[in-house]
């Protein structure tokens, strides 16, 4: 029997599902029980098709080799985009009570928007694609497409598959749902702002220049020491 990348997936176990909730605790805030359950299932399913043991093992990069965080895994990005997406939705909903947005779809969609990255970043897949790009392409499927596959495979609603598919450039070919628009903007903003803060490895962040973003220098260890000293002095004085 053929599998997509010719490898047997690992079994999806309760231990694997538990790591998903540990690494993405915001999943617990999805109100709808079935949606919450299937969101966990999607990440477990995606991980089982790769060698990544858990979400925090996936590198914190926008695409392989592009916008790589100096520190922090993919989970940092996912959780932060989820919190920002919810903040955007809540901000508008509070100011404009007549505006309608599905809180659960925003949250689940944000936590799942990069679910296809497990496969796109998987070292064995990348080695196979690199070895002969003429065979299946490189990558064979980008993470938005593969992510939509995962969402459909575990029975998530089309609204979530649409966010996985449409959060990145693929979405430019479609009319995005409101919830997809929110996640898309939060996601792209996240990488740009991370770049502005100087949190991305310079050799992976050449794109910042075309966005007219200059990375700020990070605090040095000395700066931090000085700050700690000042804090202690302030505490002593207070
Ligand atoms: Fe993302």
Structure described in brief:
With 238 residues, the chain is mainly alpha-helical. Helices cover 57% and strands 5% of the residues. The protein has a single domain, classed as Hypothetical protein af1432 (Orthogonal Bundle).
What would you say this structure looks like, in words?
The chain has 238 residues and is mainly alpha-helical. The protein has a single domain, classed as Hypothetical protein af1432. It is 57% helix and 5% strand. The chain contains twelve helices and two strands, in the order ααββαααααααααα. The protein is globular. The mean pLDDT is 95. Fe (ii) ion binds at residues 77, 81, 113-114, 187.
Q: Report the principal-axis shape.
A: globular
- Largest sheet properties: 2 strands, antiparallel
Bound compounds, each kind once, are: fe (ii) ion
Number of spatially distinct domains:
1
* CATH-defined fold name: Hypothetical protein af1432
- Give the strand content: 5-15%
CATH architecture: Orthogonal Bundle
Helix content: 55-70%
Cα separation of the termini = 71 Å
SSE order:
HHEEHHHHHHHHHH
The number of E-state strands comes to 2
Main features:
globular; 57% helix; 12 helices; single chain; binds fe (ii) ion; 238 residues; Hypothetical protein af1432; two-stranded antiparallel sheet; 2 strands; mainly alpha
Which helices and strands occur, and which strands form pairs?
Elements: H1 14-23, H2 33-48, E1 59-63, E2 66-73, H3 74-95, H4 103-112, H5 117-121, H6 123-131, H7 133-136, H8 143-153, H9 158-166, H10 178-196, H11 207-210, H12 221-237
Antiparallel strand pairs: 1-2
Helix pairs in contact: 1-2, 2-4, 2-8, 3-4, 3-10, 4-9, 4-10, 8-9, 9-10
